[in-house]
Design the sequence.
């Protein structure tokens, strides 16, 4: 767009931006200064990493980190494999009942596992998986959203490429691996970013199915750590909060554009 | 190659964790479980108790106010942010970053940070009030302020997410329109009101309906900020389901409440896929 924006508008835009960044800036301030500076802002306040050290020593955050990383990787790999196969079936093969099957898949877009906590808890109990990392992951492994996105992408793969691969003697799975998957790379990246962010941040379901340090992800660990009953002081809680969000925040700062585009794609469908 | 074979792994999991649970929810809402573990068919009894349960109605009404409090304001802010970020403004990279950042943060971390703002006396908000010699206030502990406090936090969390949809839509608009309007001597506000905003209407509808669906799922913050209190002033339907199922251990009633949530979500989804998709073209 051209033309100059009125300085007043520029100031308003900046004011809003500073207001928006303030809560986060505050969290960093409090995490990086001694507790007595938690609410008094002074330029001479000494910087310290003590809050992080104390948070790290007071709760098994190392274990929580490992749990969360294992969880998001497990979910992502499962989702990518299952949805690639399913999307390939929908995009490439004509079979009886495919319309109904696809509608049944899409049902998960409106009723996500997040709201079926009661019955899914029963199911996980029956499978004997309570309080394990797979218990958190399983309801999300088949992702209607991933199947939908990949099917769209796969449908746009030119038939000539498929024919060429077939002439060279490639079977259906080879065609999937050599032709479809490489062409869908942007879709995989967009979906991957959204999935990792979602499950890194997910809270209610992991809270319900986990009950021990060995299976708890970071978000649940943070909630347990920061509960008012524990009497941990504020600066340490903010340090723990910063630790919980730091990896995603750093990834976001590094790949800002990619994040924004991925979230947009994911949202628009 | 059998297509069903490709579908099988995903289908098994979808049936186990989406289709079967939906049917099981409906079934369990028609039964009660006895102490000895047997189930007794009770017809619509659970629904009758639900209709007589004031907390259920409170949660539903809270959901309504929560949606009404968060959605229009976040959408208006999102639009404003998008218009600004789309301009050739100094530091627009920073602006976009600042507006969007809350979106990538875990709700539970956000709740922790804001919990401190609202802490009585010691918290940031009361410290600010202290500067004006105002006494401390228990923001999250008072029925009159708890909902507005949570609403402000959620607006902060969501506006940047909605912004990106407007940004995408604005970038699709032809610059000729604005130029033509400028040549005709239309003011910027007039152009926005009469040209840009109407053209963005499909985006607004799309964002609004997604926001409503989302508002039923947003309950993480309640777990650490208010636990639905005080006196259920901040409870929401999904949080109430969580409490009934896992604190009160009444899974039949939790199933009944879940049926209500499922009906609400499916209605909204049908509205979205049926009505909106016919009118809006994104791809």
Sequence:
């Amino acid at each position: 767009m051209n033309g100059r924006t009125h300085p007043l508008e520029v100031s308003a835009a900046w004011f809003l931006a500073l207001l928006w960044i303030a809560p986060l800036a505050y969290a960093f301030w409090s995490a990086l200064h001694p507790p007595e500076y938690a609410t008094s802002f002074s330029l001479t306040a000494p910087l310290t990493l003590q809050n992080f050290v104390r948070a790290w020593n007071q709760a098994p955050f190392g274990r929580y980190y490992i749990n969360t990383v294992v969880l998001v990787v497990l979910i992502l790999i499962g989702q990518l494999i299952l949805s690639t196969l399913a999307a390939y079936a929908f995009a490439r093969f004509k079979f009886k009942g495919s319309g109904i099957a696809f509608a049944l898949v899409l049902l998960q877009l409106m009723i996500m596992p997040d709201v079926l906590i009661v019955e899914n808890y029963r199911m996980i109990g029956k499978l004997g998986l309570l309080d394990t990392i797979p218990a958190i992951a399983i309801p999300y492994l088949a992702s209607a959203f991933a199947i939908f996105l990949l099917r769209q992408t796969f449908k746009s793969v030119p038939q000539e490429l498929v024919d060429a691969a077939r002439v060279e003697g490639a079977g259906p799975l080879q065609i999937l691996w050599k032709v479809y998957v490489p062409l869908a790379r942007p879709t995989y990246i967009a979906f991957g970013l959204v999935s990792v962010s979602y499950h890194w941040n997910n809270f209610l379901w992991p809270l319900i199915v986990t009950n021990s340090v060995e299976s708890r992800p970071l978000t649940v660990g943070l909630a347990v750590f920061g509960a008012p009953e524990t009497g941990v002081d504020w600066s340490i809680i903010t340090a723990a909060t910063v630790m919980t969000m730091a990896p995603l925040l750093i990834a976001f700062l590094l790949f800002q554009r990619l994040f924004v585009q991925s979230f947009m794609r994911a949202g628009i469908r | 190659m059998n297509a069903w074979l490709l579908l099988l792994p995903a289908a098994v999991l979808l049936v186990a964790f989406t289709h079967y649970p939906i049917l099981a929810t409906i079934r369990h809402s028609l039964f009660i479980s006895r102490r000895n573990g047997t189930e007794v068919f009770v017809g619509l009894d659970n629904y009758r108790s639900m209709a007589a349960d004031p907390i259920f109605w409170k949660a539903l009404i809270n959901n309504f106010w929560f949606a009404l409090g968060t959605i229009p304001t976040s959408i208006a802010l999102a639009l404003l942010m998008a218009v600004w970020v789309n301009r050739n403004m100094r530091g627009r990279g920073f602006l976009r970053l600042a507006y969007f950042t809350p979106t990538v943060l875990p709700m539970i971390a956000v709740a922790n940070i804001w919990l401190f703002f609202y802490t009585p006396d010691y918290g940031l908000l009361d410290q600010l009030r202290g500067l004006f010699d105002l006494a401390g206030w228990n923001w999250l502990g008072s029925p009159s302020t708890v909902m507005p406090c949570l609403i402000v936090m959620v607006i902060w969390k969501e506006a940047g997410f909605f912004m990106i949809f407007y940004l995408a839509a604005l970038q699709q608009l032809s610059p000729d329109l604005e130029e033509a309007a400028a040549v005709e001597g239309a003011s910027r506000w007039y152009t926005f009101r009469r040209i840009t905003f109407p053209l963005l209407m499909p985006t607004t509808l799309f964002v609004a309906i997604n926001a409503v669906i989302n508002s039923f799922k947003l309950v993480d913050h309640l777990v650490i900020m208010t636990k639905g209190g005080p006196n259920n002033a901040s409870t929401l339907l999904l949080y109430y389901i969580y409490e009934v199922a896992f604190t009160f251990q009444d899974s039949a009633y939790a199933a009944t409440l879940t049926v209500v949530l499922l009906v609400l979500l499916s209605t909204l989804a049908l509205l979205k896929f049926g009505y909106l998709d016919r009118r809006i073209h994104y791809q």
In short: Chain B has one domain: 52-279. The mean pLDDT of chain B is 87. The longest strand of chain B covers residues 31-33.
